[in-house]
Task: structure prediction
Amino acid sequence: MITTYSNTMKQILYSGLLFILVLPGCERSVNDLDEPTFPTNPNVFIDGFSGGLNYAAFAGSVPAAFQVDTEVTFDNTSSSMRFEIPEVNDPRGGYAGGTFFTSGPRDLSGYNALTFYAKASESVPMDIVGFGNDLGANTYVASVTDFRVNSNWNKYIIPIPNPEVLTEEQGMFFYSFGPIDGKGFTIWIDEVKFENLGTIAQPRFEIFNGEDATTSTFTGVTTSVTGLNSIYNLPDGSDQLVNASSAYFNFSTSDETVATVDESGTITTGVPGSAVITASVGDIDADGSLTVESRGQFNSAPTPTRDAENVISVFSDVYDNVDVDYYNGFFNGDGQTTQGGTGPGGADLIVNENGVINYTQLNFVGIGMFDTVPSIDASEMTHFHVDINVNEAVQSGDFIRLQLINSVGNSETSGSFTINSNILLQNTWISLDIPLSSFSGLSSRSEIGLIFFISDNSVSNIFVDNIYFYKN
Amino acid sequence: MKTQNSFFRIQIHLILLAISVSAVSCSSEDSGPDWQLVWSDEFEGAAGSSLDQTKWNFEIGRGQNGWGNNELQYYTDRTENASLDGEGNLVIIARQENFQGANYTSSRITTQDKLEITYGRIEARIKTPFGQGLWPAFWLLGTTNSGEIWPQIGEIDVMELRGQQPTKIASTVHGPGYSAGNGITDDYTLTNSRFDTEFHVFAAEWFTDKIDFYVDGFLHHTVTKEEIENAGNEWVYNDPFFLILNVAVGGNYVGSPNASTPFPQSLTIDYVRVYGE
Result:
């Protein structure tokens, strides 16, 4: 009985709704009524917070950087949003940043842009503004990084990459503004709302920033689709690039056995062969692709077995690594050509959840631990360990010189140890355990701040793993 | 898709409604021009076929000084640059390609010696290209039958658009003493739509003493014989004119394309119709 009753009620409700919806020529079909619908309120901040809107400052930002301003407003309305960007070294925080989000979701699929008016105390770039940051999954994040503001109110338009997915959105507006040339300033923003503009059109989409890239890789290696852009033509004829999260895109592979790609854009390499990763948004194919050339099984370095309490690790998935400034200092002013060491935690390849550095175009490269992180006190340590796999033919005369620098820039000392061509092997890991006493010239090792790999171009492509100090 | 279709249909109905309403209001305003269709091309035909050369001519090449405007394209009669789309439209396509020393190709078609008219309603339903440096136009030139040259022959620009301003068209007349940058012109700007995303109807109604310019049935610009003569100039619109459709690339009016200008770019023409009283 209860079931019947509620069904009847539903039918009545449906037919009533249908009647109302059909009259104004609404586009909804009956099927849509089965899905929950959320408010379509387009307003974010007009003359104050719209219904259900909350604000949270981002971690590390000045907590009170955002204030409602009743003095400086667009079109003399009652209030605007004021953002005070701190100077460098402001004890309250390093930047102004936060997100405006609603308590319950809104259906924004009927709009195609977030628009607002903005002005600033001086002509400055707005570091980042966007929507889709809901302090949760942040699924449909879209942002613009190239808006400039000046002392006049101007309208800004962020086209929604693909409106039809925004049926349940809570992230209405977010921003992050840092000091410019060390100085603080003020930005005002007003009339923030979603709109359906007939004047933005001609969408294009990009993965890998529209480039057709190729990667030579191994079975089990995972990598991500990057450079995800949405480009719409604005009423003034200019193109607006919006950085879009992967959820707006549908990814596909030309050969699932060689490479798979999941909905978040994570690519996993399979059997040897070649596969092309492409994407689309709605029914528009995105520009750009990644050709994955799988070389088959990756031979991982031997897994370290030393007791963690005897180890100070710089790069390894077995141990907790110390903080490092970088795994590639890019000393390009000194003639460095080396690439690599730039992936997550320095890992250029992640094979079966084990990160590996791949230095290419190697002449020299430094791993730094002295600039913003403590240097390593290796006084108690006896050995330096590293696993190296040369990814090319080894010629006589090839070498890799390891150099450790203590107390960088402050009466520093250094010591080096050279691995000769008779030790290095192509496509094979060599595990080196070098007594620290063999680093001739290293008079102290209480503040090791740089580890160099130097080949002077003799060896140009190496895999590196398990860099650590240990004591016997 | 269902949703989009029904929305699209509604839009078409609205457009049709607007057209019929405007036709009624025009005839009442103009105290009775009863327009009779005298010539048209509906561009029906197989996809990829060229246009009807009993009605149209191709103008080939780069003209003098880029057709007088430092334009960058080479006009061809190839179907790569002008062909029917099989859905009742003519498509003029501007391409970025090296051709006969030019960096772009496109097409320019005229009715010279095939349709020459004096007075009447000249109308086309058009969707424009977009992007910096694209310059589509629907216009008329006076014939040189009497040995006169531009600007004495007169020019009536029903519609021209700068690709970098996709919401705005201009309608202009050029004659002796009021040519080039001094043409008698007015803009029409769409507030919540664009000329490159949907079709719009552009028309000029040309009488013995005035020319009215319409966009989607909205009269946005009138040029009268009286105002031209009051300015000390000559009304040169009592002789035969012919129609022109083209997409120029670059030139004085729009400037050159830039790296973000997408190519190829299409001017899509649903029909061209000419009415007499």
